Amino acid sequence: MSESKISIWFIIGSLLTVYGIIICGISIYHLFYPLKDTHIVLDNLHAGVWWGALLLIIGIFYIIFFRPGKVK
Amino acid sequence: MTTDLTFCFMPLFANGLSIVSLNWVDSLIIVIYFLFVLGIGFYLLRFAKTGDDFFLAGRKMTAWIAGLSFVAANLGSLELMGWAASAYQYGILATHWYWIGAIPAMLFLGLIMMPFYYISKTHSVPGYLKLRFGESSSLLSAISFGLMTVFMSGINMYAMAIVMKVVLGWDINFSIWVSSLTVMLYVVLGGLLSAILNEVLQFMLIWLGALLIPIIGMIEAGGWSGMVAKIHHNYPLGNYTHLWSTLGSFNNNPMGINWVGIVFGLGFVISFGYWTTDFLVVQRVLSAKDLRSAKLAPIIGAGFKMMVPLIVILPGLLGLAVIPGLVSEQQAVATGAHSYNEVLPLMLARYCGPGLLGLGITALIAGFMSGMAGNVSAFATVWTYDIYKPLLNKFKHSELDDAHYVRIGRWTTILGVIISIGTAYLVQQFASIMDYVQALFSFFIAPLFGTVILGMLWKRTTAAGGFWGLLAGIISSISMWLWVKLDPGALKIIALSSYAKDMAQDMFRALWSWIICVGVTVIVSYFTEPKPESQLVGLVRGCTVLPSEGHLPLVKRPVFWAAVILIVFIVFNLIFW
C-alpha cells in the first residue's frame, strides 16, 4: 500500500504478534495445567505452543520490516 | 484450572461427533480481529475522498496486494465451507474448481485481457462494455451482475451463520447482522481501499487459521497413502482420490460428470467467465498502480489459488478418512446426524484447543467477510457508475461532482448489505448451496464471457451483436434451468447423458448458453454496422498498440511467471491423475 502512512503488512504483523502471544501463552499454561477430559485428537503434539510461536515470529518479522517510517 | 479455561465439547449425537463452545481466549481472539478490521476502516477514511479512491483504491496497489486481494475476495464462504463439503461429497474431483477451473483463466486474464481493461481506464466490466458496445449491453450486464452479487453476498452470510450455529450455537440472525454490519461499516468508511487491505489481512488469517487442520490431519491419517487407504476402507465402492482417471464416463465418479463437462464447461466457459469478467475479482486488479502490476496480480493470485486446496479440499478428504458417515443436509435434518456441510468446523474442533480454535473460527469469519466485502464493494461501484450515473445523465443533463458519486457509493454499500441480508434469508429455502451458486454462474457469467471475449478480440463485433448475444445467452440459460426444474428428464438432453447429475447439468448449461451467446453475437454482427477502427483503440486487440516489456529482465516479465505457474499446474494434475 503506497498512500497510507502505515503499511498493511505492519498491521498484519501487529495482529499476528498479539495472536502469537495469546495462543503461545495459553498453550504453555496448559502444558503445566492440562485440560481435563479433552477430546482433542493428537493433543500430545501441543500444536498451540509451536503454532503460537510461529505466529509470533512471523508477526515480529513483519513489524520490524514494515514499521512506519521504514517503508515509503 | 478454572472451568472457564476448559475447552468444552458437548457430545450431542449417537455417532460421537461433537460441537464446541468457545472459552474466553477464543472469544478474545475473535474480538481482537473485529477491532482490527474496524480500525483499518476508520484509519482509511481519510484516504477515501475521490471517486478513484473510493471505487478503485486510488489505482495505487502493488501487484502483490492486488493479487492477494484478487484471490481473497474469492475466498468466501463457498471456498472454505462449500468446497470442503464438496470434497467430502465428491472427493478430489472438487480440486478441479481450483486448478483447471481457475488457473488457465487467471493467466489468460493477466496476459491477454488485463491490458484492455487497464488501458481503457474503465471503472468496471460493465464500464468496458459501455465503451465497446454502448449503454444497452452495459446496463444489461450491470443489472445482471448486481443481481448475482447480492445473491452471492446472501449465500456468504447464510453459510457463515450456519457455521456459527453449528460450531458455537450462535443464533443465525445474530451472526448475519453482526458480520454484515461490520463489513458495511469498514467498506462505507474506506471504500475499496479498506476492502482490499482487509482482504489481505483476512487472506493471511485464513491460511494461518486453517493450515493446522491438514497438518495434524495428515499426521493422524498416516500421510497421503494412509489417508487414501482409510478412505478406501470407509467407502470401498467410491472413487474419491483420482482427479482425471474417473472422468471417462458420467457413471464412473461421485460427481456424475465426464471430462467434456469439466474441461469445456468448467475449465473454459465457467472459469474464464468468472475469473475474467466477474467484476468482483477484476475490480481488485483494476486497482493496480501500473499495467505491469495489473498483469502480474492475477498471475500471483493464480500461484496462491493453486495452493488453496491444501486448506479446503484436503480437510474434506481427511474428513472422509477420519470422520466417515457425514450425510446430506436433508438427512441431517431428518436424523440429527452431522451434515458434510459441517466437515470443516468439525475438523477444526477435532484438532484445535483453546486459542487455536479461536484462530480457526476467526479464519472462517475472515473468509466470509472478505467474500462479502468483495461483493458489496463491487456492487457499489457497478450500481453507482453503470446504473445510477447513466440513468441520472439521461434525466438530468448537468454534470454532478465527484463527491456526489462517492456519497452515492457509500449509500449503495449500505443498500447492498441490506439487500444481501434479505437474500440470506431467501437462500435458506434452497437445499444445496453449491448447486444454487453454480446455477447463478451459468445464468450470467457464461454469456457475459462470450460477449466480452468477442468484443475484446474480434473488431467486427457490433454493439447490436454484443447486446442481443448477451441477452440470448442469459435467457437460454435461465430457460434450460427452468426446463430441468419442470421436467428432470430434460437433464439427459442438456448434458448429453442419462447418467448426468446436477453438477454436470450446470457445466453443460453454461457451455450451451456461451455457445448461443457467441452464435447470436456473430450472426447479428454480420448483419449490422461495426464501429470504425479509430473508435476501438484501447479496447480491441489488433486496434491497440500494447506497451512492450522487452526492456525488462526475464524474471520481471509477467509472461515468465505465467509460464512457471502453468508448468506447476500441469505437474500437479499429472501427480493426482
Write the layout of secondary structure elements.
The complex is a heterodimer of chains A (72) and B (577).
Chain A: H1 8-32, H2 47-65
Helix pairs in contact in A: 1-2
Chain B: E1 8-11, E2 18-21, H1 24-44, H2 51-56, H3 63-72, H4 77-90, H5 103-119, H6 125-133, H7 135-168, H8 172-210, H9 212-221, H10 223-234, H11 259-277, H12 279-286, H13 291-307, H14 313-322, H15 329-335, H16 343-351, H17 356-395, H18 402-427, H19 433-457, H20 463-486, H21 491-494, H22 502-526, H23 558-575
Antiparallel strand pairs in B: 1-2
Helix pairs in contact in B: 1-8, 1-17, 3-8, 3-12, 3-13, 4-7, 4-14, 4-17, 5-11, 5-13, 5-23, 6-7, 7-8, 7-17, 7-18, 7-19, 7-20, 8-17, 8-18, 9-10, 9-14, 10-14, 11-19, 11-22, 12-17, 13-23, 17-18, 19-20, 19-22, 20-22
Explain what this protein looks like in three dimensions:
The complex is a heterodimer of chains A (72) and B (577). Chain A is mainly α and 72 residues long. Chain A contains 2 helices and no strands. The mean pLDDT of chain A is 85. By secondary structure, chain B is an all-alpha fold. Helices cover 70% and strands 1% of the residues of chain B. Chain B has helices at residues 24-44, 51-56, 63-72, 77-90, 103-119, 125-133, 135-168, 172-210, 212-221, 223-234, 259-277, 279-286, 291-307, 313-322, 329-335, 343-351, 356-395, 402-427, 433-457, 463-486, 491-494, 502-526, 558-575, and strands at residues 8-11, 18-21. A two-stranded antiparallel sheet of chain B has the order 1-2. In chain B, helix 3 runs antiparallel to helix 12, helix 5 (103-119) packs antiparallel against helix 23 and helix 8 crosses helix 18 (402-427). The longest helix of chain B has 40 residues, at 356-395. Chain B starts with 7 loop residues before the first strand and ends with a helix. At the A-B interface, helix 1 and helix 2 of A face helix 1, helix 8 and helix 9 of B.
